[in-house]
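Open question from group meeting: does this chain pack into something compact, or does most of it stay loose? Before anyone orders reagents, we agreed to write out a predicted structure and look at it together. Recording both the input and the output here so the notebook holds the full record.
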Amino acid sequence: MPEGHTIHRAARDQNALLAGSMVRASSPQGRFSGGAEVLDGLALSGIDAYGKHLLYRFDDDVVLHVHLGLFGRFFMHKGDLPDPRGAIRLRLTGHGGSVDLRGPTACEILDEGAEDALLARIGPDPLRRDADPDAAWARIGRSRRSIGALLMDQSVIAGIGNVYRAEVLHVNGIHPERAGSSLTPDEFEALWTTASRMLRDGVKSGRIVTVTAEDAGKPRSRLRRGERTYVYRQSACRSCGGPVANWDMAGRRAWACPACQS
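Structure tokens returned:
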């Protein structure tokens, strides 16, 4: 499933293609024909990202909600519009190009009550300027659940997935199995700051690179896929060289260095 940096980058890129103009909408696959009819011909004012969710805001207070889930993908086009390929749920075309959406978990038009309910379920997003980290700390600081599980809970903090979970905890020397209530306020603040920085880096570069150039021994832009993380999918810790442990945590694989994280 895409992590938060991918969704924010999609919002940025699609705003450049679509926002500020009348949008043509269609559903080549046919599964969203009714929704496409509602959207077709409306002006799109902008696209907001909230964690792993996208909200497209049109005239007349019409809001489209998209969640990619495990299999959803966007395809963006400039210039000549290609024929649809595959099961395209929704095609949006604006002044700068077009966006095709394939295989999302959610593609729906929300009324005001549904939008409010959706946003109420989403925790603060470290990539949003209006995020309130105190709201996340209020839940983490009193929870007996592991911090590894809490970071993956989108109602606690939005946008962090399995890779960022492993890397944010590693950089701050915190084991995923520690209870949220065992963290100090300073430890939580460090986690939030690290997550914000890593996610912003991801938006900028379009990929997850958590290892510093100093630790990697070469520029980050030259790192191969297997060199870009400290512990995630690593057999040896890139900080200390010791073995990396991995185990199942609530149905997802957790990764940590026992020597560096306590």
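Observations to bring back to the group:
Residues 94 and 124 are 30 Å apart (CA to CA).
The two ends are 28 Å apart (CA to CA).
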